[in-house]
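Record 1 of the preview.
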Amino acid sequence: MLGLNIDPAMLVAVAIFLVVGFPVHEFSHALVAYRLGDGTAKMFGRLTLNPIVHLDPAGSFLLVASALLGGGFIIGWAKPTPVNPAMLRGGRRAEAWVAAAGPLSNLVMAGLAALVIRVIVALNMINSDASLFVANVIYLFVIINVALFIFNLIPIPPLDGSKVMFALMNPRTVWQIRPTLEQWGFLILIVVMIVPINGISIGGRVVGPLLDGLVSVLVGF
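->
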């Protein structure tokens, strides 16, 4: 109809990520916040791996669209985990740990899936179309997790990386720039995601090499 060539393996990998990757990401935020003294996420029923309570329709749609359509930039998000920074033990540093927990969980999931790939290759287990399909799904799951690990650490609000950046900055500087960044951050992200340079978005040109390099390190090829 639209001439799209959708990869079935990518479709399966995205589906797995929606029911595993997003819940683990948000659960990690909630768990670290809870361990550091903030029970807000638990109070709202978010200290769980149940995907239903974490999925955001718009963020899920963008993940599916960006993964299936290509373009060098995979984006997506779940419902933000509610956190009350005033309840955290450790102030801004604690807020940074809570923010970083989500992306780090993506890196851990990527590492575990990459380990499976390494075992499959080492044992020469790809001996049929079915095993090749499974290996491709796992490999694509690695790519999605690494892509969102990198994407979420971009230091622009509302992404997790902005909270990590603010925690490392001088409080006075944060007070001066945070309101402006939070006001215009989403628009900046839209520009980064959409504006192309020679057919590839600005974000894709930055994230692409990082993505390729990290995936290669994890899977070993």
